[in-house]
Amino acid sequence: MAHFASSRDLCPTIKNILLLDSEGKRIAVKYFxxxxxxNGAKLAFEKSVFxxxxxxxxxxxxxxxMFENNIVIYKFVQDVHFFVTGGDNDNELVLASVLQGFCxxxxxxxxxxxxxxxxxxxxxxxxxxxxxxxDGGMILETDAATIAGKVASHNVDAGAPLSEQTLTQAFxxxxxxxxxxxxx
Amino acid sequence: xxxxxxxxxxxxxxxxxxxxxxxIEKGAVLQEARVFNDPQLDPRRCSQVIxxxxxxLNQGDTFTQREATEVFFAVTKLFQSRxxxxxRMVYLIIKELSPSSxxxxxxxxxxxxxxxxxxDMYRANAIRVLCRITDGTLLTQIERxxxxxxxxxxxVVASAALISGIHLLQxxxxxxxxxxxxxxxxxxxxxxxxQFHALALLHQIRQNDRLAVSKLVTSLTRGTVRSPLAQCxxxxxxxxxxxxxxxxTQPGERPFFDYLESCLRHKAEMVILEAARAITELNxxxxxxxxxxxxxxxxxxxxxxxxxxxxxxxTLNKVAMTHPLAVTNCNIDMESLISDQxxxxxxxxxxxxxxxxxxxxVDRLMKQITNFMSDIADEFKIVxxxxxxxxxxxxxxxxxxxxxFLSNILREEGGFEYKKAIVDSIVILIRDIPEAKESGxxxxxxxxxxxxxxxxxTQILHFLGIEGPKTSDPSKYIRYIYNRVHLENATVxxxxxxxxxxxxxxxxxxxxxxFVLLRRCLYDNDDEVRDRATLYLKTLGADDTAAITxxxxxxxxxxDVPLTNLEASLKNYEPSDEPFDITSVPREVKSxxxxxxxAPGRTATGLAAPATTTSTIDTYESLISSxxxxxxxxxxxxxxxxxxxxxxxxxxxxxxxxxxFDGHVLFQYNCTNTIPEQLLENVTVVVDASxxxxxxxxxxxxxxxxxxxxxxxxxxxxxxxxxxxxxxxSNILKFTxxxxxxxxxxxxxxxxxxxxxxxxxxxxxADYMQKVGVSNFRNAWESxxxxxxxxxxxxxxxxxxxxxxxxxxxxxxxxxxxEGTEVVPSNSRSHSCLLSGVFIGGVKVLVRLxxxxxxxxxxxxxxxxxxxxxxxxxxxxxIVASG
Lengths: 184, 883
Known about the structure:
By secondary structure, chain A is an alpha+beta fold. Chain A has helices at 7-10, 39-54, 92-109, 116-121, 123-133, 144-152, 167-183, and strands spanning 14-21, 26-31, 63-67, 70-77, 80-87, 134-135, 138-139. Helix content of chain A is 44%, strand content 21%.
């Protein structure tokens, strides 16, 4: 019966991962739980989390707060606010390790230029990053280097100058250019 | 080729709100998505369009069914491209679009091809996508690949398969359960995360097989689990096994405790925290077991990481509810946390200190809190207010400073919930601490002079009407009440009129003045206010005593029909010549309110206040008086807490509440049917009272129907001899079972009679004792005098600890411990405990217990009882002597 915690409850579960800007607007968000069924409910949650945490100093160490039976762990870097939400019986340090993995992976992906514009310009990578951290609420990976490695691997930036590319990347780009010129 | 994402322009960076998605519009992006159909794909361009689509979804935009289908079909074309970056985006958007099952078929073959690809990244992601969108039929086709993937040497692939297994277990458990060999192999993986995912899946596969879980825990706690996350899981599983095996082990030799304790020395902080928390939550944890856990938590309190401080103080806060003394060692660290930047941590520290504090530290604490209150949010303030209320009930002598604190914060700014919490607390203190009544009422009067919340004003006016006339000088409240009639809205004015009438009815000397005031209300511009004034003037002005009694009955009597039923009846009433008849309102309470629902295991949060149970007895009383068979039993003396008569997770869950009356005992069986395919009818409990000779069954009330998951009650009543009669009863649940068609929810016509054995039930002496505290035990004891005192000494034999012996005696007597004396300091050799209560018949009883323990853990006890009746004093000794 429902009185007893099922095995699924025993497993740490992430309810959402939020990346908001310095005005509380979404950069990227991902919800894994049905606690917020509508977009309105999600926005309301984001707003309350954002305003309640705004004045705190979460720049050097991750901070923590409780919201209606949820634990939110958060950290701010420049104008980007990172949040990870879990249930109130989850281990705070497990949630913190997810946040840490997220923050550091984003820093690696954005080559330490963590700000809102960089994040939006690399939104595809940020979304892939969230996808590699949590799958359906289950923690998939928390090591930042591994996450960033999975996201960045083979992501060829064809528009970048050749000097910044590795040899294989350059080779691939050249081939792409060649086929394109042959076919047009 | 359309323009790529605009690169950032450094010049306008600072001035203009810049976003690469500025001015993005759904229709345009959907148009752009046509590039997916180009014969010559441009991977970069396609990736950008997918990113834009994902951006729209992320911002809360939605696609219509048709749009989603079109995008999905277009995206499937992209599997032709061999660009890895694009393929990743394709995986991502397929998951976001969550296609319907007939659409899924289009991508199945592409995904299955990727599942067998040489690229690990393809394999892992294809598994995750396919398992996310697939249904059961496809699963059998890919099962072979998934089993292989679970034991794949690449951890990313293995984790993808295991996590997918965890999700699929919800929908296709029978298939996933077949993988348990592979999963078991993966538990031994060298990759940390694989081990974590495998352990989670393995436990979920076996969770209904207690023996298997126990075996799993036994083998893994001996071995080496490398991953900290997996270790945390194992700790949770271990404490579950401990919880379920408790009861059949001797105290002192708790299984797996050594393992939990060894985890306190783990190098990962998350494991240490998990273990410490598991230890503090053990059933009946002893002080010796607690000590190492408290020690590591105390170290965390001074950590530089806020998360760690929070986790530690939250855990200690919970421990303080049950073992306040175990936490007192941390008080110094805790006090420094009052000024913590993080207000959640500060609040938890304050409430913990309030729980562990002793009488002498109250004043110092209050000073610290006063500074702290001004800069925290309302919801934290509520927590503090509730903690102060319980502190005040624990140390009634300190009511003056605590009441002052409450009235001070009542005057400050605050929202409704916060003000309500303060008012509720003052009301409770007034009710429980007689000395605090007059000052408390005046604080409330001052508050309504300037109260913006109609609800609170009316509640306070109602309360004033009941308590005010009983004070030494009722006239001083009149001014505050009559001011409401001038200054407030109609709702408050109407309740002020009623309150005035109550003073008039109760205090004869005030009646003429009240009449003058009420007459003025006759010119109010609101109907309700005028009507009330007219009614009260008429009824209170009557000459004969019968009419006055009627008026008092009307003013003070409670409405004896459930409010919801009355509301429903009034809505159904059609205006006609026939007046509304209140006796036509049904009195049956539809379903038992949530008061009895057990709180689920771990959800009690550190910030939650202890639940108050004051309203439970009122609920029971109105429930019982609504049943004609039992309404003649008189006033309900006491209702016990629900006693479970079935094991957890059985087909039918039954618990019983014992209602005690002067000459009767009524058993209320709360039944829940947990089988969706069954409807139970004519449910009764057959009680065998052959072991309870002084009880005789006189009435019972069957439950007509008990549908799935909708609790119902059946009752059995006994007549008993006067006094604290005890006895043992055996119970059988009898009923008619009808099959229910799950698709239609309709029951078949024919049923089968069946019965179900319940556990035995006992009526014990403690059932006849009400827990009623006294504010000053010494005064009460002195004023009771030694006339009916009975003193005797008892040997309690060897006990586990002094604390355990004290708790056992308190539970045996069922009395209220006073002045915090139920808590035994660790390592003490002797202890005094003060108890008070009201015995059946309304006799006040006070008890002084002195305990001593020797080296062999033999406990001796001296019991001194004072009451208003020596036979009752003897009866208390009787209880202890036979218990």
